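Please think about what follows:
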Amino acid sequence: MHKKELRSKYKALRRELTENELEEMSLAIANKLLTLPIWEKTYFHIFLPIIEHKEVDTELILYLLSGKDKEIIISKSDFETRNMTHFLLTDNTKIKKNEFNIPEPVDGIEVPSNKIDVVFVPLLAFDKLGHRVGYGKGFYDKFLSECKPDVIKVGLSFFEAENKITDAHEADVKLDYCVCPTAIYQFKKA
């Protein structure tokens, strides 16, 4: 399937999810994350979910990261330049929804992309080769290409992999893992 078709399909599937299903699947994803070989790392980038789009609830993952004394990084998006600015999440961080209902830090301690060890990546769909489909704005492809070469990219998905995204480009940044409620896909060579 093409990215455009996959966006429509998975937005529709998400809309059908109940609040209870969202909670249960988000919990299952958080529990599966514990089995990944990422926990010796220090700097973890996480997205704050757009509730209206029924994205994976990352609150439980935030608790895991906090409990393991990890440095948590969240971003602010600039829709004109397609750049993301990354900030350390602290007790003093003020979060505000932008015009697209994305919860973002108002300001804070800036963290360069090349310092980040692990990125939890939002997505609508992904395939068995590690390609992902987001909302199509290119924020994460740009951000991930700015990270250090060995950054670990972990997709979070309510749904299983598609066989192949037919219009994936070589320039698209592939995932290393994708965690679903019932499975973990590994694309990175061990």
Observations:
- The domain at 3-186 is CATH 3.40.50.10420 (Rossmann fold).
